[in-house]
Amino acid sequence: MNSKIKNINTFTREVSVNVPWENLKDDFKKCFFDFKKGYSMPGFRKGKVPDAIVKKNYGPAIEADFTEKSINKFYQISLQELKLIPINKAEIKNLEFKEGNSLKFKAVFEVTPDFKIPDYKKKYKINAVRVNQTENDLKEALLSVQKQHGNVKPVDDGAKIGHYIQGDFQELDESDIPIIGKKYEKQYICYGEGVFSGPGVLPLEGVKANESVKVNVDYGNNKNVKYEIKVNRVDEQILPELDDKLASLANPETKTLDELKNKLKDSIQESLDREFNNQIDQNISRYLVEKTKIEIPISMRKNYLDNVIEDLKQKNKENKPINREEIEKAYKDIADWNISWYLIKEKLIKENNIKVSNEDIDKKINQAASNSKLDVKQVKEFYSKPENRNKIEDDLFNEKLFNHLKEFANIKETIKTTDQIKKEREKNG
Hints:
Elements: E1 2-7, E2 12-19, H1 25-37, H2 51-82, E3 91-96, E4 103-110, E5 124-132, H3 135-148, E6 151-154, E7 164-172, E8 178-190, E9 212-218, E10 224-238, H4 244-250, H5 257-291, H6 298-315, H7 324-351, H8 358-371, H9 376-384, H10 386-406, E11 409-417, H11 418-427
Parallel strand pairs: 5-11
Antiparallel strand pairs: 1-2, 2-4, 3-4, 6-10, 7-8, 7-10, 9-10
Helix pairs in contact: 1-2, 3-5, 4-5, 5-7, 6-7, 8-9, 8-10
């Protein structure tokens, strides 16, 4: 057998296969007689029909069946010889075969693309913003604790800022006509918070149970939605006093309000530090994707977009028609970025011999169990499932990879407070 490879581009290969008749005749003979054994016709016993008659009546069909089996066999052999691993189903072209002649065909398929990762070990620059908390963060955290342990009482004299409204939301079109399938029942919102704080929701002021109002909700990014709200209930939340009693109720490990405040401060900063480290990881991956030129295999992009569309279909409870062309256009850059990072990550893990052992996984599971409020047996049972254990393994690979990459990163930090970040977001809309 003779196999030749041709590189169409960085990810497409064309393999030409030529198998001489000498290497085929024994298999063809067996294929012919296997068919003949089951063949019968008037005047002959089953399996005793002369070869010439069998070939005359079924020769092309036998050749076609033999060809199909042989293509797969010799395609696999050629892949092993050439040390190729396809990532999609091959397209078979220029097929030639007839009894007594060579089998010839070309197989075109995709492989993981060739690419070169930049020499990051010579140091590379990464920018990151470290965010520190302010007193406002603690105030918001304490208010959240109060809300969690507060009581609710009905309001009879009309809604005011800070009151909670439960109602049925009917979306309207530009002519105030209800849109079919756009009714959301028993929605609970806080008047004056989030998207329900703009001028378009002022009609909620003073609204009472069993009344209806029309509002315009500004969701940002030029998205405004008009609703008619049939109010079912208006509630006021009565907040408990900030004292030692609330502190012990909110967290059994704290006995005083000061202890609760310190724990909340630690928790806030831990969250901000975690976001800072995640930002560094994201910027490192962004740097490598931008600096690495990869041609994305067509099949990988298609698989990614197929999964996106399938996910959208699962979430599409209203059965809206999905335009594949629009989805592909909207998600193409996202698909290419994620595929690029996946390929870079796999190559980096392999080149740097990064490994995750069973001991590493078990240690991580034990750590999760000790940090969890759940029973240790429950946590370990959860991670005994292959898909959950694999998630831990993937997380460890990422952790080890980014620890390696950070060794060569020159990280320039900018310090900001949460108040500054909020002002910037408000300014930018």
